[in-house]
């Protein structure tokens, strides 16, 4: 048996587009719209969960027990206004401001039902009736912490690229922070550390925010520090200088062979012209003479803070000497 699908399709299309079906559909839509509008004008109840946000907690106050993070509200209003609560998904959080609260050494602070209700009402429509809410009071058990300033220690590797050197010491800003903890914990904490970092092959300036490693039950005045490292290429420089005897007894003098030595070192290119021969001395230290030997190792003295130099070599590094009565 052959079925004429084309004919069936035409009949269905004709039925759906007929005047009676269109009029019926219009009445269904109008009825739905009137029902929805009527529903919006009828007072109904709604339960909402509203987040609580605690602000202004002093750094030296430790909360001993978990605090409620949400308040469940039971409210009543017409459907139209209740629909706006659904539409916004969430109401503004209830703000519990503790910045002006007086905290004693240890105790419990209570946020009363009246205080909470005032905060909730500020987020409701004027026509919305607050029937109940839970929890209706908030108890905050706390203790006061002691404070202490401790240094921040860099954990990890920060190194320049080959043929480069840091112009200055790698810096952490700030290099110390204030911690807040119990007196017992404070006695055992002497420093805080950054998260482990790896910055190598540095050829220029880097500046990065580095998080600090958290400590259990310890609050930090800040959670991160700023690491700054400035790298540049280095070069070599040398001076030939007279050997200078030091720490000599008043009745003795020393003559060295040779009388001069050459000091060679590496220095960043930005400091190449800053370091001069007068900034460095090659020393023959009488106080470090080895008994029974006529040779002595030379030392180099310089102000390491004024101009950083490194990889210092002296040639010759040992001299022969004779001591003479004055």
Keywords:
326 residues, RNA Polymerase Alpha Subunit, Chain A, domain 2, eight-stranded mixed beta sheet, 5 helices, 18% helix
Helices, strands, pairings?
Layout: H1 5-16, H2 19-40, E1 43-55, E2 61-63, E3 70-78, H3 79-87, E4 94-97, E5 106-111, H4 113-121, E6 129-134, E7 138-144, E8 146-153, E9 156-160, E10 164-166, E11 171-173, E12 176-181, H5 183-188, E13 192-193, E14 197-202, E15 205-211, E16 219-220, E17 224-246, E18 252-257, E19 260-268, E20 280-285, E21 295-297, E22 299-302, E23 309-315, E24 318-325
Parallel strand pairs: 1-4, 8-13, 9-14, 17-20
Antiparallel strand pairs: 1-3, 2-7, 3-6, 5-7, 8-12, 10-17, 11-17, 12-16, 15-17, 17-19, 18-24, 19-23, 20-22, 21-24
What would you say about this model in short?
This protein is α+β, with helices and mostly antiparallel strands. Helix content is 18%, strand content 48%. It contains five helices and 24 strands.
Portion in helices = 10-25%
CATH classification, class level of the largest domain = Mainly Beta
Count every helix, treating DSSP H or I runs of 4 or more residues as helices.
5
CATH topology of the largest domain: RNA Polymerase Alpha Subunit, Chain A, domain 2
Q: What is the CATH architecture assignment of the largest domain?
A: Beta Complex
How confident is the prediction overall: mean pLDDT? 85
SSE order: HHEEEHEEHEEEEEEEHEEEEEEEEEEEE
Rg is: 41 Å
Shape, per Cα inertia axes: elongated
- What percentage of amino acids are in beta strands? over 45%
Structural class: alpha+beta
Give a quick account of the main beta sheet: strands, pairing sense, barrel closure. 8 strands, mixed
Number of domains: 4
Low-confidence stretches: none
End-to-end distance, in Å? 139 Å
Count of extended strands = 24
């Amino acid at each position: 048996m052959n079925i004429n699908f084309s004919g069936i399709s035409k009949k269905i299309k004709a039925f759906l587009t007929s005047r009676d079906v269109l009029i019926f559909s219009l009445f269904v839509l109008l009825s739905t719209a009137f029902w929805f509008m009527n529903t919006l004008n009828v007072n109904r109840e709604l339960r909402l969960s509203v987040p609580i946000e605690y602000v202004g907690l002093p750094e030296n106050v430790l909360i001993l027990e978990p605090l409620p993070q949400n308040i469940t509200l039971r409210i009543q209003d017409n459907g139209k206004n209740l629909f706006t609560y659904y539409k916004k998904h969430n109401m503004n959080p209830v703000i519990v401001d503790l910045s002006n609260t007086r905290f004693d050494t240890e105790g419990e602070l209570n946020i009363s039902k009246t205080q909470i209700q005032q905060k909730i009402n500020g987020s409701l429509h004027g026509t919305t009736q607050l029937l109940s809410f839970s929890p209706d009071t908030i108890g905050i058990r706390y203790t006061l912490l002691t404070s202490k300033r401790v240094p921040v220690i860099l954990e990890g590797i920060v190194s320049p690229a080959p043929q480069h050197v840091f112009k200055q010491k790698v810096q952490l800003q700030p290099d110390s922070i204030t911690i807040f903890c119990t007196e017992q914990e404070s006695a055992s904490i002497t420093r805080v550390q950054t998260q482990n970092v790896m910055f190598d092959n540095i050829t220029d300036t880097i500046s990065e925010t580095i998080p600090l490693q958290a400590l259990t039950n310890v609050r930090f005045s800040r959670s991160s520090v700023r690491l700054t490292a400035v790298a540049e290429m280095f070069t070599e420089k040398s001076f030939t200088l007279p050997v200078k005897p030091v720490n000599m007894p008043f009745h003795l003098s020393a003559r060295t062979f040779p009388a001069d030595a050459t000091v060679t070192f590496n220095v960043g290119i930005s400091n190449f012209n800053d370091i001069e021969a007068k900034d460095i001395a090659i020393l023959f230290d009488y106080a470090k003479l080895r008994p029974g030997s006529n040779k002595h190792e030379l030392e180099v003295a310089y102000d390491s803070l004024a101009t950083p130099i490194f990889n210092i070599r002296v040639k010759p590094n040992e001299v022969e000497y004779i001591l003479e009565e004055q």
